[in-house]
Amino acid sequence: MGQLTLSGVTKSFGPVEVIKGVDLEVADGEFCVFVGPSGCGKSTLLRMIAGLEDVSGGTVTLDGREITNLPPARREIAMVFQSYALYPHLTVRDNMGLALKQAGHAKAEIRAATDRAATMLSLDALLDRRPAELSGGQRQRVAIGRAIVRRPKLFLFDEPLSNLDAALRVQTRIEIAKLHRDLGATMVYVTHDQVEAMTLADKIVVLRAGKVEQTGAPMQLYNDPANTFVAGFIGSPQ
Ligand code: ADP
Ligand code: MG
């Protein structure tokens, strides 16, 4: 399961309110994509769902359990960042297994989980390498593998492809779509790339200045945008 609900979520940094009351439902197994201009609050929203940022108001619920004030490690949520944030001194295997090790899982169990994730992401041959010995695309796959081994109910991706070149972006996007199918997990994915949004999403949430402007299936927003702002993001001709 992995059903996410945000109710009246707000966030202020000092006197400035940057998230202004977001209500959102993401169904179990759904691929939900956040789009919107730079600075509209996509990353802040994701960080609040992950527990990396305090919520100023409202609630976050996962499978009916309120998690608004739980520490990140207790949320059953994994986040994949744009910068891969791998530990340079650890091998691929140890980077992927670290969270399980910290949570006190047995060695054999960690090994089995990392082997499984490595196979899923074609990283089997790279398990003993260190991040410096990998390409950008391979590092991003390790970052995704690190999320998979925790078996989270919910995956969060913050512009995971934006540091990759065009060809790798397409390849990695296809891998993420496959991963979604294989795992059946709920995913919330931030991008400013229309093609990514249109091809990956079951549901697109268009954000504007800390509020939800429109929510819908890709073709629904494409064919019936609420206004020119949404049309500008989803790319239907004016
Ligand atoms: P996006 O990811 O959509 O580009 P962000 O969530 O990063 O937007 O930022 C939303 C707004 O919140 C921006 O105006 C940004 O400057 C502001 N902001 C983000 N993090 C902080 C912070 N730690 N302190 C102050 N302002 C912040
Ligand atoms: Mg951002």
UniProtKB/TrEMBL annotation:
Record key words, sorted: ATP-binding, Nucleotide-binding, Transport
Organism taxonomic ancestry: Bacteria, Pseudomonadati, Pseudomonadota, Alphaproteobacteria, Rhodobacterales
Protein name: ABC transporter ATP-binding protein
ATP-binding recorded as keyword: yes
Molecular-function GO term, any one: ATP binding
Protein family per UniProt: Belongs to the ABC transporter superfamily.
ABC transporter domain span: 4-234
Highest rank taxon of the organism: Bacteria
Range of the intact protein held here: 1 to 238 of 332
